[in-house]
Design brief:
Helix content is about 5%, strand content about 60%. It has about 650 residues and is mainly beta. The protein has a single domain, classed as Maltoporin, Chain A (Beta Barrel), CATH 2.40.170.20. It has a 22-stranded antiparallel β-barrel. Strands 3-8-9-6-7 form a five-stranded mixed beta sheet. Strands 23-27-26 form a three-stranded mixed beta sheet. The radius of gyration is 24 Å and the shape is globular. The two termini are about 45 Å apart.
Length: about 650
């Protein structure tokens, strides 16, 4: 299609010269993790988006990547059907350059090239999602090159409560879930589970085999507050998924119907505690986290290889309140990571290997609220790694709130880094891959300025942010060594450029009608090997979305969700000996509608239609995506 994104986002562009992040300004009292010291969003010198549990319920979006794809600066490339590989790129970064946390536990998986397998994640049991854009490696370490996505799950509160939900719909899809939880004077707990099963659709352009998906998610949390100045909490999340997918036909270069399956099991666990000392002058916190993942692949019913990772993390923060306006946090992070790869040996080599990495980070983080108008933040981090060169990252930001106007200006400059993955260092076939102990971490320096404006007693919130970033030492994990005729990894010469802007608007038109709009522009290029720059893959220049929430009564709710994704480029690998080819992925517009009817205070019914226009599109070349589909279900709370 040839939809003009300027027409789609005209209301945003008209008002976007005064902007920031609408959702963040709307709930400005919420503290987010833009620093080691929690801050109100109005004091963070970054573009921030916050999605609440109410937003998730109103949008009726089950798949987490489908939700994130509607937010400014985020592009998701999915390989076909529900459960197909979904790679998320924030502000043009690589899929493993965004740090994702769940209840403080890092989700980036060494067994998946340090990417997060978003296709396996649902929105169940999520209380809040925070997206902080821009490099934050000075606070959180490697992977936070493009930003941080922080997921906070629901916790028990109030009297004992039980929740249940069920849904059925297109493509043979069934979903069920429930939770139980509550809180006492000093304790709280919550236990939830969800199950999803879908026959799926055919991911290849030809044939009729469906690629199904099945997922079980269990989430548990508990907390204890023995005194007003101390607390202890525990969280656990486990995913068990089965995803069918199509392989590539080497005679055509396109996906074709085949019996390929990936089984993945992922467990995230964490224990954290904190205590205030000397009447709040010192806040001491510590946490221990654990990640255990296994990704097993099968071809025609036979095991074809697997990867697994195990990571222990130990983190200690000491925050010192120098005065009511100034604080500094000193932190030490230590992570031990093991990586295992198994598979049948072949003429290509033996993939079986076990590797490990240890990393210790030292952090200093400063927050100064100089007065009601000015907030200054700064942080520096030094990472000591036992496998590759140590690295230092930093960040500085300032916020100025124009007195009495509802206008906020901010700016920051930051350096972030992405450590080499296990694949970069050791490859997939050890016999054919030369390890490179001299690899440098990828690093990016980004400059950002922004402005937000809240007017009409908070009924209108506008935002704009502008950024420019330069990435250097980008790692090519499949470089050919002409001396040994083997493959290796190497840091590329030159810099990748990522420039763009994001506009947002959140408008309470009436007490019953809310409209959220956003538009993002991105110009992402990388060295082409001949001294020039070429457009980076799977990064649309234009993205825009509109969400309309209409509540004509206390019982009825209606929503319209429209998401425009501009054209992008991809690579097609035809059969040997033909060289690879650059191809264009066309733009597309996805429209979803939904409705909710509340029977009483405990039970509500809902329904939605996804891809209302039955748009045919690809955001990964050769992989077909689902057409129109209708779903219906219920929610019950007791």
């Amino acid at each position: 299609m040839n939809t003009n994104p300027l027409l789609f986002t005209l209301p945003v562009i008209f008002s976007g010269l005064l902007s920031g992040t609408a959702l963040a300004d709307k709930i400005e009292t919420i503290e987010v993790t833009g620093a080691r010291t929690p801050l109100s969003v109005v004091d963070i010198a970054s573009s921030v988006t916050i999605i609440t549990a109410e937003d998730l319920e109103n949008r009726q979006t089950f798949s987490l990547p489908d939700l994130l794809n509607t937010l400014p600066g985020i592009a998701v490339a999915r390989a076909g059907s529900v459960g197909g590989q979904a790679q998320l790129r924030l502000r043009g970064g690589e899929a493993n350059q965004t740090l994702v946390l769940i209840d403080g536990i890092q989700m980036n998986d060494p067994a998946a090239g340090d990417e997060v397998q978003f296709e396996l994640l649902s929105t169940t049991e999520i209380e809040r999602i925070e997206i902080i854009r821009g490099p934050l490696s000075s606070v959180w370490g490697s992977d936070a090159v493009s930003g941080v996505i922080n997921i906070i799950t629901k916790k028990g509160e109030g009297d004992l409560s039980i929740r249940a939900n069920g849904e059925a719909g297109a493509f043979g899809t069934y979903r069920f879930g429930g939770s139980v939880g509550g809180a006492g004077k000093q304790t709280n707990f919550r236990l939830g589970a969800s199950y999803s099963d879908s026959e799926g659709t055919n991911a290849s352009r030809t044939g009729g085999e469906k690629d199904g998906f099945r997922a079980l998610t269990v989430n548990a949390s508990a907390g204890w507050q023995p005194s007003d100045s101390s607390s202890l909490s525990f969280s656990l999340r486990h995913n068990d998924t089965r995803n069918e997918f199509d392989g590539v036909d080497f005679l055509t270069g396109f996906p074709t119907d085949s019996d390929r399956v990936t089984n993945a099991k992922k467990t995230y666990a964490g224990v954290s505690g904190q205590v205030e000392l000397f009447e709040g002058l010192i806040m001491q916190s510590a946490r221990v986290t654990y990640l255990d993942t296994e990704i097993a692949n099968l071809s025609d019913g036979l095991a074809s290889g697997s990867t697994a990772s195990e990571r222990w993390g130990f983190y200690a923060d000491t925050r010192v309140r120098l005065s009511d306006q100034h604080s500094v946090t000193f932190a030490i992070d230590h992570e031990d990571t093991d990586f295992t790869q198994t598979g049948p040996a072949s003429p290509f080599g033996d993939p079986n290997q076990q590797q490990s990495i240890s990393n210790t980070g030292y952090v200093a983080d400063y927050v100064g609220i100089l007065n009601d108008s000015v907030t200054v933040t700064g942080s520096v981090r030094y990472d000591d790694n036992d496998r590759f060169e140590n690295d230092t990252n930093w960040r500085g930001g300032i916020v100025y709130k124009l007195p009495g106007s509802g206008t906020r200006f901010y700016g920051n400059v930051a350096r972030g880094q992405k450590a080499p993955t296990f694949g970069d260092q050791f490859g997939f076939f050890a016999d054919l891959f030369l390890g490179n102990p001299d690899l440098l971490p990828e690093s990016s320096v980004e400059y950002e300025i922004g402005v937000s404006h809240v007017a009409l007693d908070g009924r209108l919130s506008l935002g704009a942010s502008f950024f420019t970033a330069r990435l250097e030492n980008e790692i090519n994990g499949f470089a050919f060594d002409p001396v040994t005729f083997l493959f290796t990894a190497e840091n590329r010469d030159g810099k990748s450029t990522r420039d763009g802007f994001e506009l947002t608007a959140d408008i309470a038109v009436t007490d019953q009608l809310d409209v959220t709009l956003n538009y993002a522009y991105l110009d992402a290029k990388e060295p082409d090997g001949s001294g020039g720059l070429s457009r980076e893959l799977r990064r649309p220049k234009n993205n825009a979305s509109m969400f309309v929430d209409y509540r004509p009564s206390g019982r009825v709710g209606l929503t319209l969700d429209a998401n425009y994704v501009g054209s992008s480029v991809d690579t097609f690998f035809p059969p040997f000996p033909e060289p690879s080819q650059a191809v264009t992925l066309g733009d597309y517009l996805l429209v979803n509608i939904g409705g909710t009817y509340r029977i009483n205070d405990s039970i509500s019914l809902y329904g939605r239609v996804e891809n209302l226009l039955d748009e045919g599109y690809e955001n990964l070349f050769g992989f077909a995506t689902p057409g129109i589909g209708a779903y219906g279900g219920f929610r019950a709370n007791f």
